[in-house]
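Our consortium's second objective concerns turning raw sequence data into structural hypotheses that experimental partners can test. To show how far this objective has progressed, the report includes one record in full. It was chosen at random from the queue rather than selected for favorable results. The single chain below, 327 residues long, was entered without modification.
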Amino acid sequence: MKNKIVLSGMRPTGKLHLGHLHGVLENWKKLQEDYSCFFFVADWHALTSEYADTKEIKSNIHDMVIDWLSVGIDPEKAILFIQSNVIEHAELQLLLSMITPLSWLERVPTYKEQVENIRDKDLGTYGFLGYPLLQSADILIYNANYVPVGVDQVPHIEFTREVARRFNYLYSNVFVEPEELLTDYPKLPGTDGRKMSKSYNNSIYISDSDEVITKKLKTAMTDPQRVRRDDPGDPEVCPIFAYHRIYSTTQQIDYVTDGCKTAGIGCIECKKILTDNILGELIPYREKREELLKSPETIEDIINDGNKRAREHAAGTMARVREAMKF
């Protein structure tokens, strides 16, 4: 399958948390073994909503790439690059914007949802309206066969297929129509029970120290019905149990399930088992991170090489696009 191309990107939000690890990066590690993968930092996408304050984007890129490398995203198996360093993305978006009906952009579900729900930012910009088309350009510039997404992102892939079909119909068959690669993202709640998010200040980060992780888990929300030690609980409504499903053995899961339901164990013991398991799994990631921090030139070399390889591929696509459009 190595001749099949996978494209995926992440906005540079800084250090990554356990939700990113199990929702995205673990999947990337599997994909890089079987496909030709392009993994990119979507820094232009960050501007669509964070255009008023750009001071942290550069440092966020650095922190995020270190996390990628520390958990096993391998530049020998995948091309890692920064979107804004491959200007062909912008050129393709511009040309595609000439043939994309405005109504197609306005009907994208996530666009409408964010405009309705994000009230603290002015999203009434050309850039925000056009971000689904920039996503399409990100995909089509590499003629990606597959894009790993959750169910909520499937409309973006269908939108991209429509754009590709329209271009191919008007000019010539330049673009592959990509397919969604549906992934079942395990949902990890934050320490307060809500979705894990940097903006909620409820995240456990891959790079957190043992002490910080231990402290966060010690005060993390559990089953609200277990007020006292001898109150029986329900693991299915306890945020901590979602972590056990990922980090604990079958025997440990059975033990904490029975102990919770019968009040045989308290939340402190339950959290202690989980904490030891999480810390144990993060040891190699932390060691790799420390190694990378000692040689920042290595990170720079990896990104520069990835940018170069991505641009070579993108330039080939753009040559075919210009030829098809008689430019």
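The partners drew two points from this record. The mean pLDDT is 93. The chain has two domains: 5-188+296-324, 208-289. Both points have been shared with the crystallography group to help prioritize constructs.
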